[in-house]
Amino acid sequence: MKKFATVALSAVLAATGLAGLTACSDRTYTIGLICLHGDSSTYDKNFIDAMREACENLGVSDQLTIVTDVPEGNECYEAARDLVDQGCQVIFADSFGHEQYMLKAAREFPDVEFCHATGTQAHTSEVANYHNAFASIYEGRYLAGVAAGMKLLEMHEAGELEDNNYTDTSKTTIKMGYVGAFPYAEVISGYTSFFLGAQSVLQENELDVTMEVSYTSSWYDIDAERDTAIALINRGAALISQHADSMGAPSACEDKGVPNVSYNGSTATDCPNTYIISSRVNWVPYFEYMIRQTLDNAEIDTDWCGGLGTGSEYTDTTGSVVLTELGSAAAEGTEAKLNEVRAKLQKGELEVFDTSKFTVKGEHITSYLADVDDAGDYVGETEAINAEGIFEESKYRSAPYFNIIIDGITEYGVAE
How many Å apart are CA 343 and CA 337, to the nearest integer? Predict the structure, then answer.
């Protein structure tokens, strides 16, 4: 952990319910971070650790205030307003549902920069001091899927899979499971890229894969995520991955002896027998950029999207999309395979959403209007597939908009 100055909340702020806020009355704080949860959430911890690292790299660790456990409601606006009152020049919020409240604050305080992860409205809001940021995490999830495919291949060749780990088709097809929070484009884009990565490995070896997705209707619900993972395993999933923020699914996999690909950080300590790998967005490069631009009174991009090669100027961080070290459950040869595929992605020799590699209701799609402008009507207005047949994810805004259910993936709603 990086050094971080903390002082107790005042009684007035405590009354607002923002118990995660740490402040110091004799210091002007430059940077504010608003988090949906705290360190117990792998999602929020990823932001907190990155912000602390970025501030240390820039020598502004004593100018940071972090607010945790801020719901996706007006509490976010109240937190932002309090941070402005403390003197913050730039404020970042980490959850999708914070967006309308960050926009409200941005309109009220035009001299403060407001930045937001996974949001969709910066490019249409016409609010100059409001900005969205994300990364091409679909590339990281594709690579994590490659690691999953290597594991499934190894298990198949070793005869370790049971009958219910296969689907009854004319081609040997292995079944995976995926615990998702909500049926949002961010989740669909992520699990589709993960699936395509696993599929690429298995199809090279004359196997195939299907995946069942169940939603928990929450970003962080340990019991629901655990129960959902168990239900998927009971329906035959030979491997589980997730886009939800607790240890519920990984711990279920460890208990059941089922391989697991986690998200936003390694679970190797708690799941030593089943953990394979994790992908995550490395927010350090963006936070350094955001803070530097603010301190220099320079413009911040309306939509910023980092990639595998978007690194930090101050550390050895290699990209905004990273993988953890392989766990003990990873198959032999996985690291070499990942290096091979990563090189192709970085050189542009491989595109994750190449429409020639998947079908929808048995057909390859050549055109798709994506809901990029997010007008609230869920109607697509932007052609997302280019002349080469590539769905151009995160080109027209930073947050994902791939929300197509491709063949081989089945949504089951909330698992029972």
Answer: 10
Q: Which amino acid is at 89?
A: Q
Residues 6+ apart with CB under 8 A from 172: 156, 166, 206, 207, 208
Report which of 162, 205, 244 is spatially closest to residue 337, judged by C-alpha positions. Answer: 205
Strand-pairing partners, residue 130, are 114
Residue 357, pLDDT score: 97
Residue bearing tokens 């894969």: 209
Q: How many CB atoms lie within 10 A of CB 28?
A: 10
H or E, element range at 132: strand 130-135
Torsional class of 63: left (φ above 0), alpha (ψ -120 to 50), beta (otherwise): alpha
**What is the CA angle 2-7-9, rounded to 5?**
130
Global pTM exceeds 0.85: yes
Neighbours of 22 (CB within 10 A): 16
Q: How far apart are CA 300 and CA 411, in angstroms?
A: 38
Task: For the beta carbon of residue 333, count every other beta carbon within 10 angstroms.
Answer: 11
Question: Rounded to the nearest 5°, which phi and psi values hold at 25?
Answer: -65, -20
Question: What pairing do the DSSP bridges indicate for beta strands 369-370 and 382-383?
Answer: antiparallel
Interval 153-204: pLDDT, tens: 999 999 999 999 999 767 799 999 999 999 999 999 999 999 999 999 999 9
- The pLDDT value given to residue 265: 81
Q: Percent of the chain, pLDDT > 70?
A: 91
Beta strands in 76-119 (DSSP E): 90-93, 113-117
- Tell me the Cα Rg of the chain: 21
Sheet holding 31-34, edge to edge: 64-67, 31-34, 90-93, 113-117, 130-135, 303-306
Q: How far apart are the first and last CA of the chain?
A: 39
* Parallel/antiparallel/unpaired status of strands 240-243 and 173-180: parallel
Residue 54 CA to residue 34 CA, distance in Å, equals 16
Task: Please report where in the chains the tokens 């999207």 appear, as a residue.
Answer: 305
Output the six-digit token pair for 127.
Answer: 């609010």
Which helix (H) or strand (E) covers residue 310, if one does?
Answer: none
In terms of C-beta density within 10 A (0-12 exposed, 13-18 middle, 19 or more buried), how is residue 387 classed? exposed
Quote the tokens at residue 83. Answer: 């941070």
Structure confidence at residue 83 as a pLDDT band (50, 70, 90): very high
User: What residues pair up with 91 in beta bridges, in sequence order?
Assistant: 32, 114
